[in-house]
Amino acid sequence: MASSKLNILLLYTGGTIGMVKDFKTGYLKTFNFKNLLDQIPELQQLDCNIETVATENPIDSSDMSPKYWVEIATLIEIHYHRFDGFVILHGSDTMSYTASALSFMLENLNKPVIFTGSQLPIGDLRTDAKENLITSIQVASLKQNGKPIVTEVCLYFEYKLYRANRTTKLNAENFQAFASFNYPPLAESGVHLKINNEHLFKPKSGENFKVNKRLDKNIALIKLFPGITQNVINSIFSTPHLKAVIIETYGAGNCSTKSWFLNLLKSAISQGIHIINITQCSAGSVIMGHYETSNTLKKIGVISGKDITTEAAVVKLMHLLGQHIPANTFKTNYEAAIRGEMQ
Ligand code: ASP
């Protein structure tokens, strides 16, 4: 690698960006990563060295699982010291989950890790892939006084750079596929690339980069709806090895005040199951105790997910359970922002 230029690692995990249409079936499926690069000769014009690596089995991201998160994190770990920045190509469907997971797994990160993908394959005439990819590489190459400007896991899509663990996929067909309702964009790309410095994550200095690979999947996610039955809730809570449940409640963290429901939560907590309250609303925060309907939750020890996204709530839970945090400090740990994922 030439010494004067920055070195960027492009990591391909699958997704529409690298898919082609199978002419027999008409379905989109993943294809060889090498062909992907042939489609973008523009990359040679960038002022950096780009090396590429792919996961063992690139997938449609709807098949994503913690096993792949560990594979991606391990690839970053292996190449961490040789590269100035990392761009991860990923399907948009579960990109917010993976990118949020990586934000927790990569501790004391002091280099940019930018997730991107596209709504149309890179070979498509009207593709959104080229702009997403080229600007992501530029963001991953940004430095000031020899130091990287971005030192966190981000998601870049359709002219906006977001803190990854604040994002959510909100549109299945629009090029503007992602939103970050509770946190402003970190950068916006127009004629100039405008960085919103005040919103960037400031890592602790002097701490060594470390990769947390233990994730515990013994969790459940319940979205409440008027009329949800006791049987459904009971069956979820009787799942063997269950350690924690995220409940998507209404508005500012409100739920039914029916005694069967509250008693069930109370008994689960007394058995050591952690319960996290997050809101079904796209924007805003859980404030337990604001309404009478959430006051009991507060009293029985339900954990507040505050303004966290569902995606970040799920992976933060897997991550913290994987850390084997003592039961009596789990609530405090969950309610504290670790990577800027909540207020
Ligand atoms: N199904 C695709 C995936 O998530 C969609 C995309 O890449 O946009 O892998």
Topology of helices and strands:
Layout: E1 6-14, E2 19-21, E3 28-30, H1 33-38, E4 48-59, H2 66-79, E5 85-89, H3 95-105, E6 106-107, E7 113-116, H4 129-140, E8 143-144, E9 147-148, E10 153-157, E11 160-163, E12 168-169, E13 178-179, E14 187-189, E15 193-195, E16 210-211, E17 219-223, H5 230-237, E18 244-249, H6 259-270, E19 274-279, H7 292-300, E20 303-304, H8 310-322, H9 327-335
Parallel strand pairs: 1-4, 1-5, 5-7, 7-10, 17-18, 18-19, 19-20
Antiparallel strand pairs: 2-3, 6-16, 8-9, 10-11, 11-14, 12-13, 14-15
Helix pairs in contact: 2-3, 3-8, 5-6
Query: What is the rounded distance between the termini?
Result: 41 Å
Which CATH class of the largest domain is shown? Alpha Beta
Low-confidence stretches: none
What would you call the shape?
Answer: globular
Q: Round the Cα radius of gyration to an integer and report it.
A: 21 Å
The neighbouring-strand order within the major sheet is 4-1-5-7-10-11-14-15
SS summary, helix count? 9
Could you say how many structural domains there are in total? 2
Category by helix and strand content:
alpha/beta
What is the CATH superfamily label of the largest domain? Answer: L-asparaginase, N-terminal domain
* CATH architecture assignment name of the largest domain: 3-Layer(aba) Sandwich
